[in-house]
Amino acid sequence: MHISFLLHNAYAVGGTIRTTFNLAQTLAEEHDVEITSVFRHRDEPAMTPPQGVPLGHLVDLRSQSPGYDGNRPEHARPARVFPTGDGRHPQYSRLTDQRIGAHLQGLKADVVVGTRPGLNVHIARQARPGTVRVGQEHLTLDGHRYRLRRELRYRYALLDAVTTVTEADARSYREKFGLPGVRIEAMANIVPPARLAPADGEGKVVVAAGRFAPGKRYDLLIRAFAQVVAAHPDWKLRIYGSGETAPKLRALIDELRLHNHVFLMGVADPLEAEWPKGSIAAVTSDLEAFGMTIVEAMRCGVPVVSTDCPHGPREIIRDGVDGRLVPMGDADAVARALLDLVEDDGLRKRMGRAAFENSARFDPVRIAERHAALYADLVARGTNDRTRSTLRDNLHRVPGVLIDEAFTLRRKVLSTLRKGRTA
Amino acid sequence: MTTSSSSRPPAAGDDAPAVPRADCTADSAGGVTFDVAVAAAPDAALVLRRGGRAGDEVRLPLTPVSPGRLRAVLPSTVDLPEGRWEAHVYGGGTDLTVRPGIRDLRALVSRTPDPRTDAVAVRIPYATADGSLAVRSWRRAPHAEAGDILFDDASMTVEGRLYGAGLGPGAAVEARLRGDRDRVHREPVTGAEHAFSFTLPYAPLAAGRDGAKQAWDLWLTAADGTPAIRVARLLDDIADKQPVFKYPVLPVGDDGKTVAFPYYTLDNDLTVQIGTP
Prior knowledge:
The complex is a heterodimer of chains A (423) and B (277).
Chain A: E1 2-7, H1 15-27, E2 32-40, E3 55-60, H2 94-106, E4 111-114, H3 117-126, E5 132-136, H4 146-155, E6 161-164, H5 167-177, E7 183-186, E8 205-209, H6 218-231, E9 236-240, H7 246-255, E10 262-266, E11 280-283, H8 292-299, E12 304-307, H9 313-316, E13 323-326, H10 331-343, H11 345-358, H12 364-388, H13 391-422
Parallel strand pairs in A: 1-2, 1-4, 2-3, 4-5, 5-6, 6-7, 8-9, 8-11, 9-10, 11-12, 12-13
Helix pairs in contact in A: 1-12, 6-7, 6-10
Chain B: E1 21-26, E2 32-37, E3 45-50, E4 57-61, E5 63-66, E6 69-74, E7 83-91, E8 94-97, E9 99-104, E10 120-127, E11 133-140, E12 143-151, E13 155-163, E14 172-177, E15 184-192, E16 195-201, H1 203-206, E17 214-221, E18 229-232, E19 250-251, E20 259-264, E21 270-275
Parallel strand pairs in B: 1-9, 12-18
Antiparallel strand pairs in B: 1-2, 2-6, 3-4, 3-7, 5-6, 7-8, 7-11, 10-11, 12-13, 13-16, 14-15, 14-17, 15-16, 17-18, 17-21, 19-20, 20-21
């Protein structure tokens, strides 16, 4: 199969980029795979791109480049195809509308895969007939704003499949969107095996890693760890990452006098080498769309104490077997689970081994096979439909197209009305 | 520029610069193993160069371990003077800087050498700001390793361990004001043999300050008549301590004009700053 991925910016750093690179790399072993990045703002990708996978771009934002597009007048006008409800809308423009549209019209791939809601909408509206259209959702339906949900519900009817990163999110799409004829499948993120030997379970270090954002609740982790230190002063907590809450976390460490035990480590690259320095990992988030760091820690043989937050952790961790799930927002519960593992070397090592074994299901080959099987099914279905009858396809497509046009018309009218008001 | 499937750009990696990447593994004795993905050459070597100074270099032969992979070993017994050593791969007439691969430094995390050892050798592979591989090296004989630092309202207490020296009569810590050789403040050191502890009140350091920021470097004398040892924190996997080990900033006196806090210098030595909030 010829599979084409559409990414927001393949040259930046982020979880969606990493997981797309991993998937493309693995699929490329058996398929013809390419990646198109809407934007390019630097010469080399910040993360190692997949070998042997062509990487192209549509809009050049390198100010020193001869092909610089950033000063084109169309790039200053707001996008119409890319939905306003997608948080990236301010970066998109009339220029991206055209470039992405031309790219999709010219694309001779069997399967085109979008990697965020706005790009999935582009694919739904602009991909050539006969191309299988897959929309990947890396965040969650419940996390999308109302305006975006409302639009996606119409647009996604024109996709062949929507993939989510958790079963919980797939259920949300099935129950709340009810898209007839659209396959909705959960596809866990790929996490390659660790390159280093797994942790030996001896290190008296608890490791956490992520963006320093309020929802990650590292304040909760620090408060919980104060209880661990009170009983076991030889244990340390290392938190890797950076972000807006760093000053507050620093102040909390000072306030609780934990400066000898809790360390803000900064950004580690690669992070992979940091997990086996510890023997327990901790996640105290209020929300994890998937929970990439949980799997990364497990792949290094480190059991994870995680809050049982929506959506990912409970689909990754088997409580009491290869890690622990504790109620959200409860520092005492986090502390008790950490102490259980700190105080029982045998339990900690057993859970570490189980974490190592159970996380093999996130192997690139296993996950990529599921994507490939879905794509192959959809390609076969499309061919069947075309040879047998176009009726079924039309039954799905026509209402979608009508709705699509009605939706666009409505927006035009509203936009004209608004302009009229301000004039 | 627009690309389409008909005019594909070259695969990323095709035009990637031929900069070799090295994975590192540190052992608990101070040795480091470098695994480099590079073609074998008879004269291949991993060269560590310090601070760009000519002649200051250590050459380690690169020998094949698997196809396309060469290994060099920096044993703890090879002397690597204190400093920042940039890694290069030499072979077949080319000399390339090296990009850091994965660095397995777990053996350094809670390293506690034998205190009777003469010297402490520490080598930490790290990524420089411009993204190349380098090694920070320290060789201290003897060595005073700072551990936990505790605070009360007006002083700080440092607990640590001595290597290559033992506490004796007259053990003391000296705070030496940087830039003024005459200003030294002494406090006694307590402990037994290799475990030391000292308390440094902030008020005497802050007395007579003219408003400028002051840096007081901490030196430990293990016993009367022995040379002073710079107090430092070296024995873990963190090449640059300053951004990771942060300590509370405490007021000195009641006038609200003076604060004090300890910090690690760029060489990971322990210093107390007296300054303005």
